[in-house]
Amino acid sequence: MWIKVISLRSPTIKLLSVMAVLIISVMIFNTPAPQKAAVDAPFANPVYRVITSQRAMALTVNVVWGTQYVPKMLALLHQNHVAATFMVGGVWAQKHPNLVRQMVKDGMEVGNHGWNHGHPANMSVSENVLDIEKTNETVQKVANVLPRVYAPPYGELGPSVINASAKLHMPLVMWTIDTIDWRPSSQVPYIVNKVIQKAKPGAIVLMHPTDRSVLALGEIIQGLKQEGYQFVTVSHLMKMGTPATDE
To answer: Between 85 and which of 2, 109, 125, 241 could a Cys-Cys bridge form, CB atoms 3.0 to 4.6 Å apart?
Structure first.
């Protein structure tokens, strides 16, 4: 039996070595790099309340209509040294720049409530991103502040809404207590009692600019202040504890 011995210096060995190097190189460069998380954890889920031991709550006011009641709400909040978060629609902010500037002047937080109160759950991620960004740009243009929080119209949630707010690193703010003040049957005693009875540390209250809200607001503030509560903006409240995804 004849065994052919191949020298390490032979052309065959050299060719095999070159091929091995090429194969290894291709494998290395074609291996997908580890993917980083797309967003930070705090922005991945909607915020319904904040887990905190401090007796603090946040009043939020969604504004796309009820313009005539906004100055009255601002005056009440300012007189009582209370900060609230006004979630404004982009179209509304464009039409009423002076009121947006007044919010900022009075120490309120201005948040994002979408461009024209469409249905974000029916929009794609990219469409939601554009909708939110357009509103942000408008608010920044008229009042020189950039919204940091987003309240989706109709409280609609879905993958495209959550992913859009996450991509923009804007907390998706919902609520703990819904006053349902937009409904004519929700009269002042109902609104006041609902907020005071359901009050708890870290709660987020949802309101709108209506005649009933104006009348109820003062009673809510005084009633909860007597119970030792302070009112802060949503962004401030989230710094006082851990945002929670349940009511």
So the answer is: 109
